[in-house]
Specification:
Two copies of one chain form a homodimer.
Chain A: E1 4-5, E2 16-21, E3 34-49, H1 57-65, E4 70-80, H2 88-103, E5 110-117, H3 125-136, H4 142-148, E6 157-165, E7 168-177, E8 190-195, H5 201-212, E9 230-235, H6 249-271, E10 279-287, H7 290-302, H8 304-311, H9 318-325, E11 337-342, E12 345-351, E13 354-355, H10 360-367, E14 371-377, E15 383-390, H11 394-401
Parallel strand pairs in A: 4-5, 8-9, 10-14
Antiparallel strand pairs in A: 1-6, 2-3, 3-4, 3-9, 6-7, 7-8, 10-15, 11-12, 11-14, 12-13
Helix pairs in contact in A: 1-2, 2-3, 5-6, 7-9
């Protein structure tokens, strides 16, 4: 029941091709802005989306197209979110139509996504002109597709794994874009997963819906929640395993492999939060309930004061206690133990709600690492949760103070 | 029923003296750190406090002391919040004891507050050594007290008004400190109000509790909520009006004057948020309920992306719509009208959920003002609310990245 990382991103599973080109939505010609992922055969498909009531038009269209549980392609542009536009639905449908025109895959088997600025009209012309080039570019090109869906991301976010189900080698691959607006109920703007596992649409949706609760939903970059967050998975069955149609042992292997991918992407997204210099992981244990553990972990990760302190490598643990205190959960301040931890060592800072002495020099060393853990024990029960975030930096402000221009 | 601004801060009402000195809690000798406000006679007293479960020891002690509805003095230090310390209650009580020693005012008639770093022990010695000097410094010195309660505030926040009740001239005065950790359920760390109005403790508490819902509770600087937020009022009755003991016409005059002071301070606090360069006011109308109006206004004001856009004078109105969409309220995106407004003019950016054309140059001009209004019409009903916040700047990160050192 082991999961191994492999190369190839969304093209690692059998029967998937991907590509990405610059079609002209962005002015910068060196930045790809148009991506396509295609399966050789129609695939089981599932999705989870933003809970923001202001939804991007592509989210609405994708939900419709996945209503029957099947899809075969994913089309995506960056540079414009196609949201809050009166012609948004029309444009999103037109993007699916372009895929049908070049590939023969029916428009309603196409997942569509857009990311970028909100409230500016998305012109179909550059995509209509570029779709042939994009289709021709399809191949083992997961990285091109990854680049084409990026906005202010500074690194590509991709993972692929292989695992065995019933003697058959199976694979999951994924690409993601994160950055800004990451939180609270959906992780990042866009995550596309592919797999060659054979699984029913219903079980695929169950697996994805349950997984995101402890992966993408536990990330926060800035507390905002995008209008366009979309996480979709296609599973085309070409691995040849016996179809997974219930929560059996095969399902559990698939879920484990899926979770490996989603947690890895979650950390990559958090660490690459706009302007971030480090990954912050908040581990909460000793909670009365999973709800309590998650709420506390998320509140700590979201606190601007905690995030700014992490940027400054300042062991201002009072801010962590303060955040726990306003989490809305009925914690007992006088039971809280708190440690900061990194590869440089473990720093106990608070026991039973009160400060313990520590070396400021050692604290600075621990907190200067590029991955810092905030370990909280509420000492009230046995449930736990993990959330991921990043520090708050000058560059976050710089990036977001002038995003559109 | 008119309210006029006057000078004098907390010393404007009859019978109040104030003072502030440097006693040595802070290393910087030019920064006052110890404040005292005293009424000639015992006064009706009321308070509202942080709802954070991690509470500063002074909050616990002050609540006890106000349980009988009366108090006569306010003692406060800055530089250390006396929170998460095992001897916190003892120290807070000792501070009240110092006031009793020099003034004869009973310790349990003293309101105590502390602000500054959390989790470091507060040494009583500098205060014990300085209390005589502080008591001797009492006079018409509201500004000294104001300075002594400041932390990273860049301006003193003070207001005083006079008004007529039953032919008698009455006054309310106030000083406040804001900055950082301002939100969501209590406004700022510390607000001290004085009045010479004659009013029962019960009516004073009712007036204060109802007032903060549309004043200090509608401010957000960074979404964090302090452990030490305290807003207290003393009303000593020396104006000689007929005692206010029910919600009569006199009460309504008092409430109006109180609200004038609290809204003025709320705006001052929001505008002086850590690193802020401008005041953001979000006016929401057309809501189905007051709850909806407040939730939408607060969510917009708290959005890091909106705040960063305001800093950059970037008319990225999609972020406002996005924030409205995740407010948790059942709004209809396709009914939202949105305008940005300042002294430079009014800029309609969205009608019925879709963008309208506007000049980027004019937008930059409107948003470059030092006070910007985000005016939202939900077009669902008749209720409204106002919330105040500030932009998110490089300096916020700088201040909070290295607060303790």
């Amino acid at each position: 029941m082991s999961v191994y990382e492999i190369k190839g991103g969304v093209c690692a599973p059998i029967g998937f091709k991907a590509g990405g080109i610059h079609c002209g939505i962005r002015k910068n010609k060196t930045k790809k802005d148009f991506a396509l992922i295609v399966s050789e055969v129609k695939a089981s498909a599932a999705g989870v989306y933003t809970s923001n009531l202001v939804k991007g038009a592509p989210v609405v269209v994708t939900k419709e197209h996945l209503a029957d549980g099947y899809a075969q392609a994913i089309i995506c542009n960056s540079g414009n979110a196609n949201t809050c536009n009166s012609d948004g639905i029309e444009i999103a449908n037109a993007m699916c139509g372009l895929v049908e025109r070049v590939s023969g895959i029916k428009a309603n088997d196409v997942i569509v996504a857009s990311t970028g600025v909100i409230g500016q009209k998305l012109n179909i012309s550059p995509m209509a002109a570029g779709i042939d080039e994009l289709y021709a570019a399809l191949g083992d090109n997961s990285e091109d597709a990854n680049e084409a869906i990026m906005t202010t991301d500074t690194v590509k976010k991709s993972v692929a794994v292989q695992f065995i189900i019933g003697g058959k080698v199976c694979r999951i691959g994924a690409i993601a874009k994160g950055i800004g607006m990451v939180c609270p109920n959906m992780a990042t703007n866009l995550i596309f997963l592919t797999s060659d596992v054979s699984i029913t649409p219903a079980m695929l949706q169950t697996a994805l819906s349950e997984d995101v609760k402890s992966s993408f939903n536990m990330i926060s970059v800035d507390g905002d929640q995008s209008t366009n967050d979309t996480c979709c998975i296609l599973a085309n069955g070409l691995a040849g395993n016996t179809v997974i149609d219930c929560k059996n042992a095969d399902y559990r292997i698939f879920v484990k492999a899926l979770h490996y991918c989603t947690v890895k992407l979650s950390k990559m997204i958090a660490k690459d939060g706009e302007g971030a210099t480090k990954l912050i992981e908040c581990n909460v244990r000793g909670a009365k309930s999973e709800k309590m553990a998650k709420a506390v972990a998320k509140t700590v990760i979201k606190s601007s004061l905690v995030k700014a302190a992490m940027f400054g490598a300042d062991a201002n643990w009072g801010r962590v206690l303060c955040a726990i205190g306003y989490s809305g959960e009925n914690i007992d301040p006088l039971k809280i133990d708190l440690d900061f931890k990194s590869k440089k060592g473990n720093l106990p800072v608070c026991r039973q709600g009160y400060g313990v002495d520590f070396s400021e020099d050692f604290a600075k060393e621990v907190l200067s690492a590029d991955e810092v853990k905030i370990n909280v024990n509420l000492n009230l029960g046995s449930r736990s949760a993990v959330a991921w975030g990043c520090d708050l930096t000058y560059d976050y402000v710089k990036i977001n103070g002038d995003y559109r221009t």
